[in-house]
Amino acid sequence: MNMKELEMLQEMSNLYGGNPEYVLAGGGNTSYKTGDTLYVKGSGTSLATIKAGDFVRLYRSKLDAMWQKKYSDDEKTRESEVLADMMAARLEGETRRPSVETLLHNLFPQKFVLHVHPAAVNGMTCGKNGKEIAAKIFPDSVWVDACKPGYILADICRRMLSEYKAKTGSDADLLFLQNHGVFFAADSTEDIDALVTDVMGKLNSVIYGWKEYLGGQLSALLGTGHREYVSSPEIAAFDPSFRSPTPDHIVYCKAKYLVIDMNITAEALKSAVENFASDNGYNPRVVIVRGRGAFVFGTDAKQLDTVKNVFLDHVKVYSNSEFFGGYSGMSEELVDFIVNWEVESYRAKVSGN
């Protein structure tokens, strides 16, 4: 019995299984292997609560032998035959049903395997350009196109992993499954953690890196480093084409917001900011990223906080108005009056806005 390693497997399983960033609704599976035995999460078992003694034990030699068999061409019959052989591969006295992905776990020579479905990963595996991007940022990974789960998936992965080793001379430790998830493999749980951290870091850089880039570009164009990005489903659904709801929103956030797309080029962004300032006589304090969120700006920390809070209030007003027949902002005539009203100009000046 390899209790130390199984306790490490339990710790790794509980760590990722208890984190909704990696596992939802009891999905995912893990395993540990020796030369002879595979310990894999059982079907229907929760990674978040699994104990060291709960993993299903199987003879690796019997699992390997399954690749020499010819299974039925009928899908239901084939999967039934495969399941029967996996159940027969269990150690004597074992009663639990192994994970449907047991064969896939056994393909990896590494001792520890983690299979999860993080949203960051599946953003890529479900993306139209995911395969090309994976090849670029994870050149040492294996990508498997979408296919039916179970035996067919394991067989395709067996071929792909074998081709990778023949090409590189090394065993793959990272396997992406289109429209499915990811497999991490290593000889220690510490190395699994390091691999996960590296993958998630690179993916989050792709997913969230645009904010830093775009925010930095806007700060340079507006001449202020005091900015914050805010987002919510309400902001994503917010329609900035409607006029301000109250005078306060004009005083502190200005009457109009700049609206841009997430993938705007640097040249187009520069033109958008310059045109906005030329048309309105002021720089934008709120820049809406269409369908995403918004950047808010201030000349100092105090003004930034005020602009943010007043803008978020505008979004709340817009959202809440749906319960009262829909949004109705101030008239254009009233907006123009507030913009040019000396009283409000004085109030904005006194408040530092």
From TrEMBL:
This is Class II aldolase/adducin family protein. Residues 10-200 form the Class II aldolase/adducin N-terminal domain. Transmembrane segments: none annotated. Pfam families: Aldolase_II. Coiled coil: none annotated. InterPro entries: Aldolase_II/adducin_N, Aldolase_II/adducin_N_sf. It comes from Candidatus Colimorpha enterica. SUPFAM superfamilies: AraD/HMP-PK domain-like.
